[in-house]
Amino acid sequence: MGSSLSVESPQPTPGASQASLPAVNSPRKPPGLNVDPKEAKRLAKEVEKQKRALALEEEKRRRALAEKAQREQARAVMMKRKEALSLAEADLGGANAPFGHRDA
């Protein structure tokens, strides 16, 4: 009676579904894992070097854009200042000019 009521994990029939499952204990390695440790380390260093180079180029590009924006802002401020000074001088009728050098 005990043997008929025991719960056992189902066992697949030989060859039924095991052909579709990958072999877990396969002696073959995937193609990418055939690299020896020294070569893998060299490749990892090369990839890291390329990443650093790309990051450096991105930082240079970012700084150049920031510098360009800063120059443009300074140019706009100077133009506005020049315009404000011209308007102020026109409002005062040239009173800011040194003595004897008034534009009439």
Fold topology:
Elements: H1 2-5, H2 37-91
Structure description:
Residues 1-41 are annotated as: Disordered. Residues 1-20 have a biased composition (Polar residues). By secondary structure, the protein is mainly alpha-helical. It has a domain at 36-93. The protein is built from two helices and no strands.
What's this entry about, in short?
Residues 1-41 are annotated as: Disordered. The protein is mainly α.
Mean pLDDT: 78
- Silhouette: elongated
Characterize the biggest β-sheet: none
Please give the alpha-carbon distance between the first and last residues: 125 Å
Characteristics:
2 helices; single chain; elongated; 57% helix; 0% strand; 104 residues; mainly alpha
